[in-house]
Amino acid sequence: MFTVEVIFFLALLLLVGSLFVQSLDLQMMMSNxxxxxxxxxxxxxxILILLIVYYxxxxxxHKKVEKQSKTVDSKSVMKQVLLIICLFISIFLVKVFGMIVxxxxxxxxxxxxxxxxxxxxxxxxSFCTTLCIYIIFVSWLGLVLPKGMFG
Amino acid sequence: xxxxxxxxxxxxDILNFDVFLWCLIGVTVGTLVGALPGLGxxxxxxxxxxxxxxxxTLNALMLLMGIYQGVMYxxxxxxxxxxxxxxxxxxVTTFDGYPMTKQGKAGYxxxxxxxxxxxxxxxxxxxxxxxxxxxxxxxxxxxxxxxFALMLFALIATSGLGGGSLLKGLIAITFGLLISLIxxxxxxxxxxxxxxxxxxxxxxxxxxxxxxxxxxxxxLIRMENSGKQQDVFGKIPFKDLFPKVSDIIRNLGAIIRGSxxxxxxxxxxxxxxxxxxxxxxxxxxxxxxxxxxxxxxIDEGLSSPEAANNATVGGALIPLFSLGIPGSGATAIxxxxxxxxxxxxxxxxxxxxxDLIWACIAGLMFANVLxxxxxxxxxxxxxxxxxxxxxxxxxxxxxxxxxxxxMLNYSLFEVGIMILFGxxxxxxxxxxxxxxxxxxxxxxxxxxxxxxxxxxxxSKNNLSIFFTRPISFxxxxxxILILLIPVFxxxYRKxxxxxxxxx
Lengths: 151, 503
Fold this sequence. Notes:
The complex is a heterodimer of chains A (151) and B (503). By secondary structure, chain A is an all-alpha fold. Chain A is built from five helices and no strands. In chain B, strand 1 and strand 2 form a beta hairpin. In chain B, helix 4 runs antiparallel to helix 12 and helix 5 packs antiparallel against helix 6. The interface between A and B is large, with 58 and 57 residues.
């Protein structure tokens, strides 16, 4: 748990660091002495880097004290990763099958794999939910959702 | 009197079927979302927010206000019935609400808490009606330095007042501020921190971030907690849902005390409904002749915090409507929503969109009445839904997040950004970094930057402008004091331990 926390904060540090590098391309001050568009991004990213480094330093100092924090079982982690993968795949599926069908597939897969429900129950729920979404968003609210190959 | 006249016109404006329908949808969905364990008001509003963008302004406002209030009401249902608070503000409700359920008085507990919520909400709105315009008039004197100082104060206040670590709060705020700088600089038109991606030229919409960090991260957290058994409650007799007038009168003192505490706490930035409920419970215990009975299922221990919880709604809307400054995560989302609906909250809002805002306030009162009916007569329906919806909730939240973000700009890129922020939000939650200040910073970031740069333009780059004007000076001093709280705490502890050693 502690290692994951350190990895997360290092990743955050990396993200902020890359934003800081981006801010170096921007002008800090204008010729008339007023602050320019690069001023705040640079200042804020430096402050954030310092805060994260200080936090990591503090956590490493108190590592032993909080070592026995709540851990997540590997099955839950697998499900979480799977859910994120399913969501990313759904983005690509929207282009192929359209929004409504992709939503149905996402629901079916997550109910069967993540919630461990039977295929029949999942299929019925997915179909009903997809139908409700179509009625509410397309028929009632008049939104245009991508249709993919069915368009 | 002028306020009452405007309020009456507001009531006339909402007298149509569409408005009624969207208000009803808002309060029903809001109550359901609030009743589902884990989903708080901020998450509920964020997930359901995109639904309002396809509606007319008034209908959208009614839907949003209905959801906001519904979530505040709903949190108590699961707290009373299964000892699992719908949100953090409902934690106190479990103290006396759940013991009542165990005594077979679930119906009475639900009804008395609904009535307390109703009275608390109404008193909060009365305060909102009379104070908002007064503060808005006063705020007309505000210029950029005052706004900068006020927004900075609101941000810093939300970071540490919740009782968490100030360092974590500051990390969350600076991260939110940095994210808010992505996109085109509104003063010079320069592209900033976009990695060369055209999709980021307009910045990252706060709704995308809010749905990611509140909605998607909630899904991931739920997956860790799935499979935990919840206590089963018995049947609720229908007649228990309508308490006697004598019961209401007996609780009236506690309800009014709770409402006053809730309203005052609601106005303060960063304090929020959770603190209000704990404070009102504590106050009630102190004024009670039988404090030892608290925690065993006593009426006052339930009605006072519930009134406080709902009175914070009216209080929290005062700085939002009059100054354009949100003091909590939920009001930050509402601020963003109002801006997206073409309303700029702030001192000039009553002049520019007064009719809409008065209709909105009237709608809040109307929603409160609807909620009282829903939360008494229809409570058995909600309790069945809580039990049945549980296994389907995770995928459903996922779909709502996915569709909600897509509907904003019809962009799948934004859906990807939402997933990324969902993961970030999950780790923020896991490691105790507060999400509300982060989203608040994203919403306020552009306004803070503009007022900061305008102030420096006014003073020719002289930072003393923030300390030479009375209002901004006061706010800056308060901000510095909040930042120094950890130092004061450290000194206090050291002084205390020194004294103990001497003794």
